[in-house]
Amino acid sequence: MANKTINSLNKKIKSCQKCPRLATYIRDVAKTKVRRFKDEDYYGRPLSGFGDVNAKLLIVGLAPAAHGGNRTGRMFTGDSSGDWLAKVMHKTGFANIPTSQTSNDGLLLSNAYITAAVRCAPPQNKPTKEEMQNCHAFLEQEFKILENVTTILCLGKIAYDATCKLLDAKPGKFGHNKLFEYGPIKVITSYHPSKQNTQTGRLSWNDWYQVFKRAKKLV
Question: What is the distance between the alpha carbons of residues 159 and 144, in angstroms, rounded to a whole number?
């Protein structure tokens, strides 16, 4: 039943045109591309979440990357953030392979579902408040369908703020590997595995791994 319901929701997400700025941007990126991917066909549409619909762990990111998910058609796929996420999820038993390169690469998640606060790649990775609001209903619907979720892992402050809104909870002070409890739901916060964090040393591999070790124990 959950699979059928999530598939119906994903069709709605794929066809969403609520945010003119984002709809135009992802189409333009898909058309102009970048040199290293000039021979590839970009997906260029809003992205749904993916993973195990019976999962206890829900991972919430910011938004698809312009030349990552917006190109490949799957969140955290085809870019460095996806590499970090797939590798650590494989190491902690949430994924069957340690890479996330294309939407048909055989990656399967176990007891985890990946989604995002915003479904279209925003310019400079900065969605507006209105755009985040437009997307929030999709997160709410996913959360209702994924009824086994007990733990939410937020990758970045925007993801944490969206999750607090989802749970009707007051945000605490955001930080890396912090644990909050909102009723029956446990929320872990983490820095996002973007190059801005991983290549500057703000997020080390060990600190990233510790977050997922913690999540594994909770679910």
Answer: 17
